Amino acid sequence: MIKLGIVIPCYNEEQVLSETIARLRALLAQLCESNKINADSAVYLVDDGSQDNTWKLIQASAAEDSRIRGIKLSRNRGHQSALIAGLETAEGDALISIDADLQDDLGVIEKMVDLHIAGADIVYGVRESRKTDGFFKRATAEFYYRILGRMGVQIVFNHADYRLMSRRAIKALMAYSEVNLFLRGIVPQLGYTTAVVAYDRGERFAGESKYSLRKMIGLAVNGITSFSVVPLRLIAGLGLAISLFSLFMIVWVVLGKILLHSVMPGWASSVVPIYLLGGIQLLSVGVIGEYVGKIYLETKRRPRYFIEEEI
Ligand code: UDP
Ligand code: MG
Q1: Longest CA–CA separation in the chain, Å
Q2: Ligand 1 interacting residues, C-beta cut-off 6 A
Q3: CA distances from 239 to 65, 75, 229, 279 (A)
Q4: CA atoms of 178 and 198, how far apart (whole Å)
Q5: How many angstroms from the chain centroid is the CA of residue 29?
Q6: Which of 76, 97, 151, 221 has the greatest number of C-beta atoms within 10 Å?
Protein backbone atom coordinates (compact mmCIF):
# COMPACT_ATOMS: atom_id res chain seq x y z
CA MET A 1 0.00 0.00 0.00
CA ILE A 2 1.34 3.41 -0.90
CA LYS A 3 0.43 6.93 -0.01
CA LEU A 4 -0.63 8.62 -3.22
CA GLY A 5 -0.81 12.33 -4.01
CA ILE A 6 -2.62 13.65 -7.07
CA VAL A 7 -1.52 17.12 -8.18
CA ILE A 8 -3.79 19.25 -10.34
CA PRO A 9 -2.98 22.74 -11.64
CA CYS A 10 -6.17 24.77 -11.99
CA TYR A 11 -6.49 28.07 -13.80
CA ASN A 12 -10.02 29.46 -14.08
CA GLU A 13 -11.48 25.97 -13.93
CA GLU A 14 -14.74 26.67 -12.05
CA GLN A 15 -16.75 24.96 -14.78
CA VAL A 16 -15.02 21.61 -14.47
CA LEU A 17 -13.70 21.52 -10.94
CA SER A 18 -16.72 20.11 -9.11
CA GLU A 19 -16.93 17.21 -11.52
CA THR A 20 -13.18 16.59 -11.40
CA ILE A 21 -13.16 16.59 -7.61
CA ALA A 22 -16.17 14.27 -7.42
CA ARG A 23 -14.56 11.78 -9.79
CA LEU A 24 -11.23 11.89 -7.98
CA ARG A 25 -12.88 11.33 -4.62
CA ALA A 26 -14.63 8.30 -6.00
CA LEU A 27 -11.35 7.07 -7.47
CA LEU A 28 -9.46 7.52 -4.20
CA ALA A 29 -12.16 5.63 -2.34
CA GLN A 30 -12.06 2.82 -4.86
CA LEU A 31 -8.24 2.52 -4.76
CA CYS A 32 -8.38 2.59 -0.97
CA GLU A 33 -10.90 -0.21 -0.94
CA SER A 34 -8.79 -2.38 -3.18
CA ASN A 35 -5.89 -1.80 -0.75
CA LYS A 36 -3.59 -0.15 -3.27
CA ILE A 37 -3.31 3.21 -1.57
CA ASN A 38 -3.70 4.15 2.07
CA ALA A 39 -6.18 6.48 3.70
CA ASP A 40 -3.69 9.40 3.89
CA SER A 41 -3.69 9.74 0.13
CA ALA A 42 -4.91 13.12 -1.07
CA VAL A 43 -5.70 15.34 -4.02
CA TYR A 44 -3.74 18.61 -4.22
CA LEU A 45 -5.43 21.35 -6.21
CA VAL A 46 -3.09 24.18 -7.13
CA ASP A 47 -4.95 27.38 -7.88
CA ASP A 48 -2.70 29.17 -10.38
CA GLY A 49 -3.97 32.67 -9.65
CA SER A 50 -7.45 32.14 -11.07
CA GLN A 51 -9.76 35.12 -11.45
CA ASP A 52 -12.96 33.11 -11.12
CA ASN A 53 -14.40 31.02 -8.28
CA THR A 54 -11.82 28.24 -8.53
CA TRP A 55 -10.32 28.93 -5.10
CA LYS A 56 -13.74 29.17 -3.42
CA LEU A 57 -14.64 25.79 -4.88
CA ILE A 58 -11.37 24.30 -3.65
CA GLN A 59 -11.95 25.74 -0.19
CA ALA A 60 -15.45 24.31 -0.03
CA SER A 61 -14.29 20.85 -1.10
CA ALA A 62 -11.38 20.91 1.32
CA ALA A 63 -13.71 21.79 4.19
CA GLU A 64 -15.92 18.88 3.27
CA ASP A 65 -13.25 16.24 2.74
CA SER A 66 -9.82 16.09 4.37
CA ARG A 67 -8.45 14.25 1.34
CA ILE A 68 -8.87 17.40 -0.75
CA ARG A 69 -6.09 19.94 -0.22
CA GLY A 70 -5.65 23.35 -1.76
CA ILE A 71 -2.59 25.41 -2.63
CA LYS A 72 -3.15 28.97 -3.78
CA LEU A 73 -0.39 30.69 -5.72
CA SER A 74 -0.01 34.43 -5.33
CA ARG A 75 -0.70 35.03 -9.03
CA ASN A 76 -0.87 33.27 -12.39
CA ARG A 77 2.53 31.71 -13.04
CA GLY A 78 1.58 29.27 -15.78
CA HIS A 79 0.94 25.57 -15.97
CA GLN A 80 4.54 24.36 -15.48
CA SER A 81 5.18 26.54 -12.43
CA ALA A 82 1.84 25.56 -10.90
CA LEU A 83 2.75 21.93 -11.42
CA ILE A 84 6.13 22.25 -9.76
CA ALA A 85 4.54 24.13 -6.86
CA GLY A 86 2.17 21.22 -6.38
CA LEU A 87 4.88 18.58 -6.72
CA GLU A 88 7.10 20.37 -4.22
CA THR A 89 4.30 20.74 -1.70
CA ALA A 90 2.35 17.50 -1.98
CA GLU A 91 3.05 14.57 0.28
CA GLY A 92 3.07 10.96 -0.76
CA ASP A 93 5.24 8.01 -1.78
CA ALA A 94 4.18 8.70 -5.33
CA LEU A 95 2.66 11.74 -7.01
CA ILE A 96 0.51 11.82 -10.11
CA SER A 97 0.11 15.04 -12.07
CA ILE A 98 -2.96 15.52 -14.23
CA ASP A 99 -4.90 18.40 -15.80
CA ALA A 100 -8.10 19.68 -14.24
CA ASP A 101 -10.22 19.36 -17.35
CA LEU A 102 -10.67 15.56 -17.42
CA GLN A 103 -9.15 15.27 -20.90
CA ASP A 104 -6.77 12.67 -19.57
CA ASP A 105 -8.41 9.39 -18.69
CA LEU A 106 -8.60 8.94 -14.91
CA GLY A 107 -9.16 5.25 -15.57
CA VAL A 108 -5.44 4.60 -16.04
CA ILE A 109 -4.45 5.93 -12.62
CA GLU A 110 -4.97 2.48 -11.17
CA LYS A 111 -2.64 1.03 -13.82
CA MET A 112 -0.06 3.71 -13.00
CA VAL A 113 -0.21 2.77 -9.33
CA ASP A 114 0.09 -0.94 -10.20
CA LEU A 115 3.15 -0.27 -12.35
CA HIS A 116 4.67 1.83 -9.59
CA ILE A 117 4.09 -0.91 -7.02
CA ALA A 118 5.70 -3.30 -9.49
CA GLY A 119 8.82 -1.15 -9.43
CA ALA A 120 8.49 1.75 -11.86
CA ASP A 121 9.69 5.13 -10.60
CA ILE A 122 8.13 7.09 -13.45
CA VAL A 123 5.01 6.08 -15.33
CA TYR A 124 4.20 8.15 -18.41
CA GLY A 125 0.67 8.60 -19.63
CA VAL A 126 0.87 8.53 -23.41
CA ARG A 127 -1.94 9.62 -25.72
CA GLU A 128 -2.81 6.83 -28.06
CA SER A 129 -5.01 9.00 -30.21
CA ARG A 130 -5.58 12.71 -30.35
CA LYS A 131 -8.88 12.52 -32.19
CA THR A 132 -10.50 15.04 -29.92
CA ASP A 133 -7.81 17.68 -30.39
CA GLY A 134 -8.46 20.01 -33.29
CA PHE A 135 -6.51 19.51 -36.50
CA PHE A 136 -4.30 22.52 -35.83
CA LYS A 137 -3.35 21.49 -32.31
CA ARG A 138 -2.71 17.90 -33.32
CA ALA A 139 -0.63 18.75 -36.37
CA THR A 140 1.48 21.40 -34.63
CA ALA A 141 2.01 19.24 -31.56
CA GLU A 142 3.16 16.21 -33.52
CA PHE A 143 5.39 18.30 -35.77
CA TYR A 144 6.86 19.95 -32.67
CA TYR A 145 7.60 16.65 -30.92
CA ARG A 146 9.41 15.47 -34.09
CA ILE A 147 11.50 18.67 -34.23
CA LEU A 148 12.39 18.32 -30.56
CA GLY A 149 13.52 14.75 -31.17
CA ARG A 150 15.66 15.89 -34.13
CA MET A 151 17.33 18.50 -31.95
CA GLY A 152 18.35 15.84 -29.51
CA VAL A 153 15.83 16.71 -26.82
CA GLN A 154 14.77 13.48 -25.22
CA ILE A 155 11.03 13.41 -24.86
CA VAL A 156 8.37 10.75 -24.71
CA PHE A 157 6.32 11.03 -27.90
CA ASN A 158 2.75 12.20 -27.27
CA HIS A 159 3.25 12.46 -23.54
CA ALA A 160 2.29 15.71 -21.86
CA ASP A 161 2.24 16.16 -18.12
CA TYR A 162 0.10 13.21 -17.10
CA ARG A 163 2.50 10.99 -15.17
CA LEU A 164 3.28 9.26 -11.93
CA MET A 165 6.56 9.90 -10.16
CA SER A 166 7.96 8.12 -7.14
CA ARG A 167 9.27 10.06 -4.18
CA ARG A 168 12.90 9.62 -5.23
CA ALA A 169 12.11 10.73 -8.79
CA ILE A 170 10.45 13.83 -7.33
CA LYS A 171 13.55 14.46 -5.22
CA ALA A 172 15.70 14.22 -8.34
CA LEU A 173 13.36 16.62 -10.14
CA MET A 174 13.74 19.14 -7.31
CA ALA A 175 17.46 19.27 -7.99
CA TYR A 176 16.67 21.03 -11.28
CA SER A 177 16.45 24.63 -10.28
CA GLU A 178 15.78 26.29 -13.62
CA VAL A 179 13.18 28.99 -13.63
CA ASN A 180 12.00 28.32 -17.19
CA LEU A 181 10.53 24.92 -16.70
CA PHE A 182 9.82 22.36 -19.38
CA LEU A 183 8.97 19.37 -17.24
CA ARG A 184 8.43 16.90 -20.04
CA GLY A 185 12.01 17.53 -21.13
CA ILE A 186 13.49 17.20 -17.65
CA VAL A 187 11.71 14.07 -16.45
CA PRO A 188 13.17 11.72 -19.12
CA GLN A 189 16.64 12.91 -18.06
CA LEU A 190 16.17 11.60 -14.54
CA GLY A 191 16.61 7.97 -15.45
CA TYR A 192 15.24 5.34 -13.06
CA THR A 193 12.87 2.61 -14.10
CA THR A 194 10.11 3.91 -16.32
CA ALA A 195 6.88 2.52 -17.69
CA VAL A 196 4.17 3.74 -20.03
CA VAL A 197 0.40 3.54 -19.98
CA ALA A 198 -1.59 4.40 -23.08
CA TYR A 199 -4.93 6.17 -22.99
CA ASP A 200 -7.29 8.00 -25.31
CA ARG A 201 -7.41 11.72 -24.79
CA GLY A 202 -10.97 12.90 -24.43
CA GLU A 203 -12.70 16.22 -24.84
CA ARG A 204 -12.36 18.93 -22.26
CA PHE A 205 -15.22 18.31 -19.83
CA ALA A 206 -16.30 21.96 -19.85
CA GLY A 207 -14.89 25.41 -20.36
CA GLU A 208 -12.21 26.45 -22.83
CA SER A 209 -8.54 25.68 -23.16
CA LYS A 210 -6.50 27.76 -20.73
CA TYR A 211 -3.49 27.46 -22.97
CA SER A 212 -3.61 30.53 -25.17
CA LEU A 213 -1.63 30.44 -28.41
CA ARG A 214 0.86 32.72 -26.72
CA LYS A 215 1.36 30.38 -23.79
CA MET A 216 1.71 27.46 -26.18
CA ILE A 217 4.37 29.19 -28.29
CA GLY A 218 6.16 30.21 -25.10
CA LEU A 219 6.25 26.61 -23.90
CA ALA A 220 7.37 25.39 -27.31
CA VAL A 221 10.27 27.86 -27.57
CA ASN A 222 11.24 27.06 -24.01
CA GLY A 223 11.30 23.35 -24.77
CA ILE A 224 13.88 23.87 -27.48
CA THR A 225 16.05 26.56 -25.94
CA SER A 226 16.17 24.89 -22.51
CA PHE A 227 17.46 21.62 -23.82
CA SER A 228 19.19 22.07 -27.14
CA VAL A 229 21.95 24.19 -28.62
CA VAL A 230 21.30 22.78 -32.09
CA PRO A 231 19.78 26.10 -33.30
CA LEU A 232 23.05 27.87 -32.41
CA ARG A 233 25.03 25.23 -34.28
CA LEU A 234 22.75 25.57 -37.29
CA ILE A 235 23.48 29.28 -37.34
CA ALA A 236 27.21 28.67 -37.14
CA GLY A 237 26.92 26.11 -39.94
CA LEU A 238 24.91 28.50 -42.08
CA GLY A 239 27.48 31.24 -41.52
CA LEU A 240 30.28 28.92 -42.55
CA ALA A 241 28.45 27.78 -45.68
CA ILE A 242 27.73 31.35 -46.78
CA SER A 243 31.34 32.39 -46.15
CA LEU A 244 32.72 29.52 -48.20
CA PHE A 245 30.27 30.31 -50.97
CA SER A 246 31.34 33.98 -51.02
CA LEU A 247 35.01 33.00 -51.18
CA PHE A 248 34.24 30.89 -54.19
CA MET A 249 32.34 33.81 -55.72
CA ILE A 250 35.28 36.16 -55.25
CA VAL A 251 37.64 33.77 -56.98
CA TRP A 252 35.12 33.31 -59.76
CA VAL A 253 34.61 37.03 -60.33
CA VAL A 254 38.34 37.81 -60.27
CA LEU A 255 39.08 35.01 -62.71
CA GLY A 256 36.25 36.24 -64.92
CA LYS A 257 37.71 39.73 -64.94
CA ILE A 258 41.24 38.56 -65.75
CA LEU A 259 40.45 35.84 -68.27
CA LEU A 260 37.24 36.95 -69.93
CA HIS A 261 37.34 40.72 -69.32
CA SER A 262 33.64 40.61 -68.62
CA VAL A 263 31.87 41.28 -65.36
CA MET A 264 28.12 41.32 -65.09
CA PRO A 265 27.00 44.86 -64.25
CA GLY A 266 24.18 43.48 -62.15
CA TRP A 267 22.06 45.44 -59.79
CA ALA A 268 20.07 42.42 -58.63
CA SER A 269 23.15 40.36 -57.99
CA SER A 270 24.39 42.90 -55.49
CA VAL A 271 21.14 43.99 -53.87
CA VAL A 272 19.44 40.62 -53.44
CA PRO A 273 22.28 39.15 -51.36
CA ILE A 274 22.16 42.20 -49.12
CA TYR A 275 18.52 41.57 -48.28
CA LEU A 276 19.06 37.86 -47.99
CA LEU A 277 22.09 38.12 -45.73
CA GLY A 278 20.44 40.89 -43.71
CA GLY A 279 17.48 38.62 -43.08
CA ILE A 280 19.63 35.68 -42.13
CA GLN A 281 21.70 37.84 -39.81
CA LEU A 282 18.66 39.28 -38.07
CA LEU A 283 17.19 35.83 -37.61
CA SER A 284 20.46 34.51 -36.25
CA VAL A 285 20.87 37.39 -33.86
CA GLY A 286 17.30 36.76 -32.73
CA VAL A 287 17.98 33.11 -32.00
CA ILE A 288 21.16 33.93 -30.12
CA GLY A 289 19.26 36.66 -28.29
CA GLU A 290 16.73 34.05 -27.19
CA TYR A 291 19.50 32.10 -25.51
CA VAL A 292 21.12 35.18 -24.02
CA GLY A 293 17.74 36.19 -22.64
CA LYS A 294 17.39 32.77 -21.11
CA ILE A 295 20.78 33.07 -19.44
CA TYR A 296 19.77 36.49 -18.16
CA LEU A 297 16.56 35.15 -16.64
CA GLU A 298 18.18 32.05 -15.18
CA THR A 299 21.13 33.83 -13.58
CA LYS A 300 18.74 35.95 -11.53
CA ARG A 301 17.54 32.78 -9.84
CA ARG A 302 14.16 34.27 -9.26
CA PRO A 303 11.67 32.13 -7.33
CA ARG A 304 9.28 30.12 -9.46
CA TYR A 305 6.18 30.82 -7.40
CA PHE A 306 4.86 32.02 -4.06
CA ILE A 307 2.23 30.18 -2.09
CA GLU A 308 -0.38 32.54 -0.72
CA GLU A 309 -2.48 30.02 1.15
CA GLU A 310 -2.45 26.32 1.85
CA ILE A 311 -5.37 24.28 3.13
N1 UDP B 1 -3.24 25.83 -16.40
C2 UDP B 1 -2.62 26.49 -15.34
N3 UDP B 1 -2.10 27.75 -15.56
C4 UDP B 1 -2.18 28.36 -16.78
C5 UDP B 1 -2.81 27.67 -17.85
C6 UDP B 1 -3.31 26.41 -17.64
O7 UDP B 1 -2.52 25.97 -14.23
O8 UDP B 1 -1.71 29.49 -16.89
C9 UDP B 1 -3.79 24.47 -16.16
C10 UDP B 1 -5.25 24.28 -16.54
O11 UDP B 1 -6.12 24.67 -15.50
C12 UDP B 1 -5.32 22.79 -16.82
C13 UDP B 1 -3.93 22.50 -17.37
O14 UDP B 1 -3.08 23.57 -16.97
O15 UDP B 1 -5.50 22.03 -15.64
C16 UDP B 1 -3.92 22.31 -18.87
O17 UDP B 1 -4.56 23.40 -19.49
P18 UDP B 1 -5.60 23.22 -20.66
O19 UDP B 1 -6.42 22.00 -20.44
O20 UDP B 1 -6.36 24.49 -20.82
O21 UDP B 1 -4.62 23.00 -21.89
P22 UDP B 1 -4.87 22.09 -23.19
O23 UDP B 1 -5.39 20.77 -22.71
O24 UDP B 1 -5.83 22.83 -24.02
O25 UDP B 1 -3.51 21.99 -23.80
MG1 MG C 1 -6.85 20.38 -21.49
Answers
A1: 93
A2: 9-11, 13, 48, 76, 78-79, 82, 99-101, 103, 209-211
A3: 62, 43, 16, 13
A4: 30
A5: 30
A6: 97
